[in-house]
Each structure stands twice: as C-alpha cells, then as structure tokens.
C-alpha cells in the first residue's frame, strides 16, 4: 500500500461541499494507517511500526508465502508471534481529532456526514463505528483484501475477522465488553449493519461483512435495492398536501403524531375511502419521519415457496432501508396476509413477518380495514380508527395535485385576485370535482392526476373533467373488471322515456349518491347497526321496460362506470363458493366508486324457504349472507328483476329505493320509436310523424322490443343501400311478435298503415 494521506474534507473553505464518499474515504484513511502499523508489527519492522509498535521475533523472518503453509521451522515459533491489541499512535489520534472537528462543523451547517447520521440512528458508539469501517474497507478499496489476508495469516480469508477488528481497534480479544459489540442483540448486528461469518469457526476467526446496501448508502448511493421494488414505496420528493384544518382526518393525523412521540407502534384502522395511508404519512411527517411504505399485499401475493425465508428477508431489508433513510415505516394492509378470521398458518406467518417490527427504535404505523388481532404481534400497538374520506376531502387532494402539475399558482382562486386566469382556476376546480367522484385512495391520486395531465397534453387540450374521467377510469376498477362486465355509459337523461314518478325516483337516486357525504357524514344521519354508506335500489318491471338502460343513465349522470355482474360467474354448485364470489365483488366494488348492477337479481336475492333438506339450508345461508353484506356495502348497488314477488321481503326493507318500470303508454311508445331510430338514420318519405304515431298506437311493445325492431329494420335498409321505410319497420315488428310468441292481427292495423302495406307488399 502506498503512503496514506488521511486528509479531512473542508466544507467551509473548499470550492465544493464534500460528498458522502469524501467523508467515508477520510475515515478509511485512518483505518489504512492502523493496517500499516499492524503489518509493520507482524513483519518486525520497528521503524515502520512507529513508536507504539513492537518487533516480531528475529528467528521468524518475513515470508512472502506466509498464510499458505506452516513450515517445520516455523511451527515451534507459532506461539511466539506478537499478540494483543495494536497500540495507539499519537499522529493518528491528531488526525482523528481534526476529522471530528470538520464533521462537527458539517453537522452545525446542516450537512452531517452519512456515517454520523447512521451512528445516531442506530445508536453506534465509537467502537461500533470503527469495527463497521474495518469490515467495509475491502468493499471500497481492494488493497485491503490482501492486507487482511496477510494479517489473518490466511491468504484465503480476505475479510476482516472478529479478532483482527478488535486488534486494529486496540481492544484485547479477551474483553467481554468488546465482544458484546458482535452479539446478535448489539446495534451492529441487530440493525443489519454487520453480518457474522460461519459460526462453526473459532470466534476470533469468524469473518465480518457489511451488506452492500449499507456501503452504498455511506458512499452516497441511495437507489432502492431491486428486491424491494414490488413491496416498498419510497417517500415522494414533493410530499402530498398535508391534512390541515378542522376536518376529522386532520384531527386524526394530529392525534396519531402525538401518540407516535410516546409509542412506537400504532394501528390505524382504515375506514371508507382508504385514507389511512395519507393520515399516517401526515402524522409521520409531523414527527420528522418521512413514510416508507411496506406493502404486505404485494408480499402475500408471492408464491408460497418464497414466503417463509425470502419474504421475511424483504421485511428486514425494508426495516434497514427505513433506518438508513431516517424514515418511519408504514405497513399495510395488515389483513391481506392474515385476515381477522384466518387460518392458524396465516396467523403464524404474519407473526413471523411482523416480529422484526416489534422493538424498532422508529415509529411504525400499521394500516388496513381489518380490526387488530391480538395474535398478530406479541407487542400490541396503539389502536386508532381512521374516519372516512369524504368527497370534499378528495376534491381538495385533487385540486392540490392538479395545481402543482399545471404550473405555479395556475389554478388557485387566490391567484385570480392578482390577475391570473379565472378560467384556469374554474377548470381546475371542475376537474377536481370530477376526480373526487372516484373512490381512489389518496396516495394514488398524484399518479392518477399526472396521468390525466399527460392525456390532456397528448390530446392538445388543457386538463379538465374529461381527462380526469379517462385517467380515473383506467386506474379504477381493474380488479372489479375481472369479476363483472364494465359498461361505459354513453346515454343521458333525455334518452330515458319513463312516466313522471319513476323518472323522479331515479333523479332522487342520483341525489342520494351526490349528497350522501353531507347527509350521512357532516349531518350525522348515518343509521346504526354497522350499516355502510352505500345506496341500494331495486328496479322491477317487465322485460324491455328500461331497467338496465336506466341504470346506465344514472351511472352516466354520476360520471361513473357501470359494472354488470354476470351471475354465471357468481353462482357455483359447490357450497360456500357463491358467497366467496359475491364477497370478492362487493370488496372490489367498495374500493371502486362505481355502479354495481345485478341483472335478474332474483337468481341470487330470492326468497328464503322452509328447510326441507341440506340444499335448502345452504341456499338460505347464501341469502342471509347477502342480507348482511348489503348493509355494510359502501357503493351503489342496483338490482333488476322481472319478478318482484320473488324477492325476499328482508331485501326490500334494506333497499333505499324501489322503482317500478311500467309498460310504456302510446305517447311514450311514440317517443321511443323516434329515439330508437336516431337522428343519423336516413328515413324514407313515408316514414313521417303520422307513420310513427300509427306504429305506436298499433303495436303494444316495450322499449326493448321497439329498439330491436328499429335495429332489425335498419339492417334490412342497409342491405339494399336505401333509406329506412315504414315497410321495413312493419317487417321487423312481425319478426319481433313472432319471437315473443304473440299474434299479429293485421286487420286491426290503423288505416294510415294499411295503404302503405298494400302498396309496398313487404314479404312475410
């Protein structure tokens, strides 16, 4: 090794602030000086050893192959080799003191070296720091490898050993106090900063190794390790808008922050809206700890072969990452690994995952919708309930993100007073209101808002409600889309033809969804008994009267997607499977602010019957489950049926609204014929107002059948490349009557249609 130059970084007078690597290399220069003195002692070079060194025995000269073999001549002198710790050196002490002075100046200037921050975070003493530096020296400078091999008297052992580390630190190897530094409960090993070697070897020859992540951190490289990408989320460089004001969420964040100053573990049970993560991030930021999130759902999705050892290693690595960065841990959802009612194997697995978090000297907040189970952890956390996230809360988060993404003060009403665009401020508010309709977790809103801005930029338009709707729909409901068929509404209230009473009932249904946060939340009119905040309605009526169409209109008015549950994928012949399928649908729908439509609901919401055999008992069990699950549902569920009498009476009591869809009268049939033909369909001269009125009076058809007739007639006209005529509609009506098994008495056709019929001679 060349002559050491243990210079000190000068952050005061230097041209640039020292980097993390500069601070570490300055410390390692002192370790290099110790290694030089140790080699001098071993070789017997009294001059090179310095005033504190001592020579080796003259009868054992330096051998360049030392460590590879033991000769017969050297064997009698093995116990004559110098032992004991390396004596201190005054020059080295002066350099160390100068370096400490510079480090203290850096701390005072707010730029503490990473090694000092690490020592404070992990509670390391001076001896712990020296041993850590000795162990990581070969990872930063390959020259130390051969030196350590020589000093270990084993050229294959190129790492620092327990005995060599103690000797270089000037500590006797027989010191019980010094040996506690390497114990499993010491700060180095318990914190994951030091890995001990093969325990089968003698204590003093066990190799020491520093994890690569620790070395990289001390060198200033803080990229997240590849093994943590799926389960760990780092704090955002620009944190989300803190929860402030007098809202229940802000009050919960302040209470949690106060508790974290006295208790290290807390469980924040999530409420409707999934706001627990944002509340926990705000509370951790208030105590000076950015939140590093550990996603247990990602860990529970791994194959079982990886969950025992590798998953626990991911948890330990996440803990190390949080401590290196000075973060607090946000862990959840806890119930995704072992629900409150789970198997004993799941509970044991969760205990194994949470065990490394029990005694950490940093705040840990668990989140999840499940109540805390005492079996999950030997040390119970402080339990806190997170209030629901309301639509105004989501609107405020959306507004904050959109303002930040569209330029400084671009969307603030405060900026309007200073002459900055009122139109931009209004557009941002409209977009925020559109985004607030979607039940997206607050920690995901920044990503969805960024996606909306990118989509608007690609379309060449300013970000507005349309871009927000498109982005939210692409992020929202992907899991529910695998369980139900998604329908993107493309209709509106003018397309709906109904009598006044059901029409107003549907308007009232939309009002319930829009204002439920105000009525059930701020006004406190939420019913007891564990009922959710959802809205459930039943649409009953004959086939084709517009029940499914009305559900699409309501979804379009609310700006939400419609998910039609396919009963073929829900009902299962095996006992209990139908309930499991429905639970998955309700769980996903709770997380997605969408309209859930159970078409032909009497198939699963039918009446309970007297128990005659096991089939009846389990069928009644499924119905009872649905009765309970509907009460705790937080979304919008619509049920349609053609047989109202078959719906269980207990369901009717739990419904917020029952809308009956009658068969259309003549005036409504006239309007339906006109709407079903549409403005873009070319019409022949004979297809005028009188003809449509005659069709409506002559044929008693519901809206669905009228729609089928219009489509069938359009295909006939398109095949001949001509406008749609009355004859085409008459032929389509005959086909529809035949399909429905109804008789067509053409002698009773109105006089306005009979001449047209005879003149055009439409074939049967």
From TrEMBL:
Matching CDD domains: RecA-like_protease
Any coiled-coil regions, as ranges: none
A Pfam cross-reference name: WHD
SUPFAM superfamilies recorded: P-loop containing nucleoside triphosphate hydrolases
Domain AAA+ ATPase: 533-665
Official protein name in the record: ATPase
Lineage, top ranks: Bacteria, Bacillati, Actinomycetota, Actinomycetes, Kitasatosporales
């Amino acid at each position: 090794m060349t002559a050491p130059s243990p210079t000190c970084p000068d952050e005061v007078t230097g041209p640039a602030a020292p980097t993390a690597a500069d601070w570490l290399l300055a410390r390692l220069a002192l370790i290099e000086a110790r290694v030089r003195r140790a080699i001098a002692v071993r070789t017997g070079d009294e001059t090179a050893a310095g005033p504190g060194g001592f020579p080796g025995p003259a009868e054992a000269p330096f051998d360049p192959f030392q460590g590879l073999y033991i000769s017969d001549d050297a064997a009698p002198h093995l116990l004559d080799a110098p032992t004991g710790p390396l004596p201190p050196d005054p020059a080295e002490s002066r350099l160390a003191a100068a370096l400490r002075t510079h480090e203290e100046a850096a701390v005072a200037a707010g730029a503490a070296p990473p090694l000092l921050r690490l020592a404070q975070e992990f509670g390391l003493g001076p001896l712990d720091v020296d041993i850590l530096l000795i162990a990581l020296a070969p990872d930063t400078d390959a020259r130390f490898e051969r030196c350590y091999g020589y000093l270990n008297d084993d050229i294959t052992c190129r790492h620092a050993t327990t005995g060599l580390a103690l000797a270089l630190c000037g500590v006797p190897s027989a010191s019980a106090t010094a040996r506690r530094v390497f114990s499993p409960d010491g700060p180095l090993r318990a914190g994951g900063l030091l890995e001990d070697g093969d325990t089968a070897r003698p204590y003093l020859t066990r190799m020491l190794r520093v994890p690569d992540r620790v070395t990289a951190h001390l060198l200033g490289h803080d990229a997240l390790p590849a093994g943590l990408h799926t389960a760990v989320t780092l704090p955002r460089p620009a944190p989300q808008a803190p929860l402030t004001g007098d809202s229940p969420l802000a009050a919960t964040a302040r209470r949690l922050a106060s508790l974290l100053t006295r208790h290290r573990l807390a469980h924040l049970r999530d409420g409707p809206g999934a706001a627990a993560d944002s509340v926990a991030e705000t509370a951790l930021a208030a105590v000076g700890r950015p939140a590093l999130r550990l996603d247990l759902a990602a860990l529970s999705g791994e194959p079982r072969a990886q969950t025992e050892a590798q998953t626990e290693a991911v948890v330990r690595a996440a803990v190390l990452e949080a401590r290196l960065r000075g973060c607090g841990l946000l862990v959840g959802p806890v119930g995704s690994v072992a629900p409150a009612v789970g198997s004993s194997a799941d509970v044991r697995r969760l205990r194994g995952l949470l065990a490394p978090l029990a005694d950490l000297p940093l705040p840990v907040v668990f989140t999840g919708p499940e109540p805390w189970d005492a079996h999950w952890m030997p040390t119970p956390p402080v339990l806190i309930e997170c209030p629901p996230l309301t639509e105004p809360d989501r609107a405020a988060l959306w507004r904050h993100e959109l303002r930040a993404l569209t330029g400084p003060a671009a969307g603030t009403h405060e900026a309007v007073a200073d002459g900055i665009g009122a139109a931009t401020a209004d557009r941002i508010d409209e977009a925020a209101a559109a985004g607030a309709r979607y039940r997206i977790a607050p920690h995901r809103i920044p990503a969805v808002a960024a996606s909306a801005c990118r989509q608007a930029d690609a379309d060449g338009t300013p970000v507005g409600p349309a871009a927000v709707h498109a982005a939210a729909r692409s992020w929202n409901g992907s899991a529910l889309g695998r369980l139900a068929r998604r329908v993107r509404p493309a209709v509106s209230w003018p397309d709906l033809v109904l009598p006044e009473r059901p029409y107003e009932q549907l308007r009232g249904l939309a009002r319930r969804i829009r204002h439920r946060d105000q009525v059930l939340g701020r006004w406190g009119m939420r019913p007891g008994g564990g009922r959710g905040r959802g809205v459930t309605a039943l649409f009953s009526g004959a086939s084709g009267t517009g029940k499914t169409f009305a559900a699409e209109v309501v979804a379009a008015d609310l700006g939400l997607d419609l998910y039609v549950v396919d009963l073929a994928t829900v009902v299962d012949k095996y006992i209990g499977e139908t309930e499991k399928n429905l639970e998955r649908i309700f769980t996903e729908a709770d997380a997605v602010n969408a309209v859930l439509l159970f078409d032909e609901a009497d198939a699963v919401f039918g009446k309970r019957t007297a128990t005659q055999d096991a089939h009846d008992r389990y069928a009644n069990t499924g119905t009872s489950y649905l009765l309970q699950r509907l009460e705790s549902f937080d979304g919008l569920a619509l049920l349609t049926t053609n047989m109202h009498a078959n719906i269980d009476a207990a369901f009717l009591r739990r419904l917020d609204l029952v809308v009956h869809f009658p068969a259309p009268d003549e005036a409504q049939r006239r309007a339906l014929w006109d709407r079903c033909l549409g403005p873009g369909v070319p019409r022949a001269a004979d297809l005028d107002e009188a003809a449509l009125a005659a069709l409506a009076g002559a044929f008693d058809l519901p809206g669905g059948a009228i729609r089928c007739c219009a489509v069938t007639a359009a295909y006939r006209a398109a095949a001949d490349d001509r406008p749609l005529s009355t004859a085409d509609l008459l032929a389509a009506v005959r086909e529809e009557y035949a399909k429905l098994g109804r008789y067509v008495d053409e002698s009773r056709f109105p006089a306005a249609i009979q001449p047209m019929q005879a003149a055009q001679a439409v074939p049967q």
